[in-house]
Design brief:
By secondary structure, the protein is of the alpha+beta class. It folds into 2 domains: 13-53, Winged helix-like DNA-binding domain superfamily/Winged helix DNA-binding domain (Arc Repressor Mutant, subunit A); 67-147, Alpha-Beta Plaits (2-Layer Sandwich), CATH 3.30.70.920. 31% of the residues lie in helices and 18% in strands. The longest helix is centred in the first third of the chain and has 12 residues, at 13-24. It comes from mine drainage metagenome.
Length: 163
């Protein structure tokens, strides 16, 4: 007997327009959003609930100013893991999740294994973070830090054309 695979409904043109607008302003009212995309305001909340339920919208967040909050120092870190360590990346990522300074953690292919995005207040706090955290990370073989002098483009936006 074959199992039926549940398909996620595709987005239509109005859904795509709504997602584009919501990426710019998630606090827009249903009335204003309905005017922008040309639909009834009563259908807007249901469409948003459906896109949340179907996994197109993962959440609604405020974008914060890291510098004003004491996290203006940005470092991109390349990590090489020891391939002989049992548990490898799985143990490493669990350990990394314990540190709020780590904004992102990505398993990658290439010259290194993991790419981290780390924010601290300044170079001294980054050095202290490394001294405190690096020895506790399982499987860590080496790291290479790249200090971001000036972020040119940093965006959580997804190109809706790609959806």
């Amino acid at each position: 007997m074959r199992r039926k695979i549940q398909e996620i409904p595709k987005l239509n043109a109005i859904d795509r327009q709504m997602l584009t607008v919501l990426q710019d302003d998630a606090r827009i009212t249903a009335l204003d959003l309905s005017k922008l995309v040309g639909i009834s305001p009563t259908t807007v909340p249901e469409r948003i609930r459906r896109m949340v339920r179907d996994g197109y919208i993962l959440g609604f967040e405020a974008r914060l100013n890291p510098a004003k909050l004491g996290a203006g120092f940005l470092v991109l870190v390349q990590v090489c893991l020891d391939p002989t360590q049992p548990g490898g990346y799985e143990h490493f990522r669990v350990a990394v999740r314990q540190h709020p300074e780590v904004m992102e953690c990505h398993l990658v292919a290439g010259e290194f294994d993991v790419f981290l995005k780390i924010r601290t207040a300044d170079v001294a706090s980054y050095r202290a973070f490394l001294a405190r955290v690096a020895p506790t990370l399982p499987g860590l073989r080496s790291i290479r830090s790249h200090v971001v002098l000036e972020p040119d483009r940093e965006s959580p936006r997804v190109s809706i054309a790609a959806v």
